[in-house]
Amino acid sequence: MIPVKTVRALDPVRLARASGMGRLSKVFAIPDIPRPTLISAQLSGGCQCRPQLGFVDLTTGTNEGNYSILGAVATGANFVPVVGQIASGAMQIFNTVLSAFTSWIGSGRAEADVIVPHQNDLVSRLDSITNQIVIGANPSLATLDALYREVWELAVGFQEFVDLREFTDRRASGQALNTVMPYLDGTCGYPVPLPLRIPYPSQVDCLTWGDGTLGGPGTNGMLGAIGRAIVLAGGTVPSLPSIIDSVNNGIAVSGSTPPGSLPPGGVITSGFSTPLALGLGILALFLFSRKKVF
User: Fold this and answer.
1) 186 Rama class: left (phi>0) / alpha (psi -120 to 50) / beta
2) Which domain holds residue 82?
């Protein structure tokens, strides 16, 4: 007699679980998601492909949502609202700074190896400016105005440079500010090592500078000397934002919308691209379903 066996219907769910298909492998890894700012730049054809600098966004050229001297140079711009056109001397120095900084990243060299050479470049440019405002040089009011703006740009851009987050030891950063800022605006007393955010200097009027120049001696550095020369020539000193505020918070423009922000009824100019947002949504859905089912 042939025995009869009962055949149960195939349960595809049980079969899948028995084979391990319902469990994620321990070696399964979610691929890295590119940074939003980088992928947005790639999709728009404007990838900078440089390290991210401190508080400066290289893609938009902004600092904390406002404008930046170093950020403008990094994106190839030579104009900053409120400040105006960036002086060619400052542009040359900061282009060199950015190139050297990019090469320094990951090299294992000390921070002073990249900061001190450009501190010396800055001082060399200040020497050149001084020669244009000594008694007998007879610069025009337009020249004095341009020199005042350039010294301000050099002060802001250099502070933005030494404040880069990649500088983690930060002793050379603080020492650099205490070396050059007394000559730029008469301030000193910056902490060594420098905090991540540059604090207000603990001292002002740190030295007397300007003897022999058109503006005469004073305790507020080259900016003060050039400003006094402008007034003596019958002009008006340019109205520029605070140096330290511009470094820490960017150069704010009243009544305008900085790049990368969302104006009322406007269009987002930077941030998540549509493909990236879609990809993140799919990833989130996958993780949610994984947690719920398994």
Assistant:
1) left
2) 36-43+50-249
